[in-house]
Amino acid sequence: EVQLVQSGAEVKKPGESLKISCKGSGYSFTSYWIGWVRQMPGKGLEWMGIIYPGDSDTRYSPSFQGQVTISADKSISTAYLQWSSLKASDTAMYYCARKEVGATTVNYFDYWGQGTLVTVSS
Amino acid sequence: DIQMTQSPSAMSASVGDRVTITCRASQGISNYLAWFQQKPGKVPKRLIYAASSLQSGVPSRFSGSGSGTEFTLTISSLQPEDFATYYCLQHNSYPPTFGGGTKVEIK
Asked: What is the chain B residue with the closest CA to A62?
């Protein structure tokens, strides 16, 4: 069974750092990219960026470039999303989802993690 | 970036109604479009991929159509469990972009 299991909810203060995770199982981890999606409270879905765990090739949305870092460790089938200095405006639910390898694939975000709620408050 | 304009942003409908949601792309995206359903407090779920292919396990009352710049998601007979927010996603070019969402509420 394909699963993407994310780390648990976090409560942080502004200026703190944070790294959340997404662990894949039930499939070949290096046959898929892992993407990250933000959903701010009461708002829509925003594509943040994506990483290929095989070689750590990473693409960012211009809106998130420089604001977050996406990484992966293929040895433990896990992708990460991290912040070096959180802001209150980073408060949101963050989802990971997978995309099949291949430039022309139509298999985009077929499986999602359960989400990680990040709350940033002083 | 390609802009995805989704309409309507919200609608009220009754059980049994035929519902149509539209996404328009600011430039051509071929058929690189997916539709997702999200219920309150739940994870988004893919309904349609490649603009018109039904995700396994999704009821056949859901269908997608379109190519290029205009796409539709149709629910042929709305059921109580279909009240949710629906999003389109284009993945033809970076960065992929979601539509703003359509909230389908009970009339």
From this structure: B95
**Interface of chain A toward chain B, CB-CB under 8 angstroms:** 35, 37, 44-47, 59-63, 95, 97, 99, 106-110, 112-115
Using CB atoms, pick whichever of B1, B49, B94 lies closest to residue A108.
B49
Contact A47 B97 (CB under 8 A): yes
> Omega into B8 within 30° of 0, i.e. cis?
yes
- Judge whether B86 is closer than 8 Å to chain A, CB to CB: no
How far from A85 is each of A24, A36, A69, A110, CA to CA, in Å?
A: 27, 18, 11, 31
Asked if residue A103 has pLDDT above 80, the reply is: no
Question: What integer is the mean pLDDT of A64-76?
Answer: 98
* Residues of chain B neighbouring A108 (CB-CB closer than 8 A): 32, 34, 49, 89, 91, 96
Band (pLDDT 50/70/90 cuts) for residue B76 is very high
Q: Three-class SS string for B19-60?
A: EEEEEEECCCCCCCEEEEEECCCCCCEEEEECCCEECCCCCC
Q: What is the pLDDT of residue A94?
A: 98
Tell me: pLDDT of A87 over 90: yes
- Picking from A78, A54, A58, the residue whose alpha carbon sits closest to that of residue A68 is A58
Chain A closest CA to B58's CA: distance in Å? Answer: 12
Task: State residue A95's pLDDT score.
Answer: 98
Q: Mean pLDDT throughout B51-65?
A: 97
